[in-house]
Amino acid sequence: MVTTDIAQLTGECSSWKSTLRDQRSQLSSLKEKLQQLSSNLLDKSTLQDLEHLQNQFYIQLINVHDLKHAIKEHEQIAFWEKEKKGQATDATWAAHEDLHNQYDHLQHTIAHVQQEFKHFVSKLQ
Asked: What is the C-alpha radius of gyration for the chain, rounded to an integer number of angstroms?
């Protein structure tokens, strides 16, 4: 039972990290596309939208990095607890739930930023 719980915890963490790596790549790609689009923009409103998106990509890339780092630390703590105590503590499970909530929130935020980018590009065409 304990091994299964730890396996579930590490499996979820691995899945989260993999998704975050993919999203980092996607955000970087969108940021690059935005930079390419910016060369011909002169309209003040469009430039404000561009700046907003640039800021959002920057912020979300930092958020992805920070959450990925927190997940790695969480995994290390859980592994250490399993090795030393045979199981993860309640505090570790509470932290896992908190990370899950942060992960879900970040997924929602990234999806929103990606939608904003699609809307921005569609206005340019």
From this structure: 19
pLDDT digits (tens, 9 = 90+) for 80-117: 998 888 888 999 999 999 999 999 999 999 999 999 99
Where would I find the H helices in 38-89?
Answer: 44-85
Distance CA 15, CA 47 (A): 37
For the chain, the distance separating the N- and C-terminal CA atoms, rounded to the nearest angstrom, is 56
The answer to whether residue 40 sits within a structural domain is no
Q: CA 75, 80, 81: angle at the middle one, nearest 5?
A: 100
- Phi, psi dihedrals of residue 43, rounded to the nearest 5°: -65, 130
25: in domain: yes
Considering only CA atoms, which of 84, 99, 95, 83 is closest in space to residue 17? 99
Helices and strands in the chain: count of H runs, count of E runs = 3, 0
Helix, strand, coil: what percent of the chain each, to 5? 95, 0, 5
Q: How many domains is the chain partitioned into structurally?
A: 1
Using pLDDT thresholds of 50, 70 and 90, give the confidence band for residue 2. Answer: very low
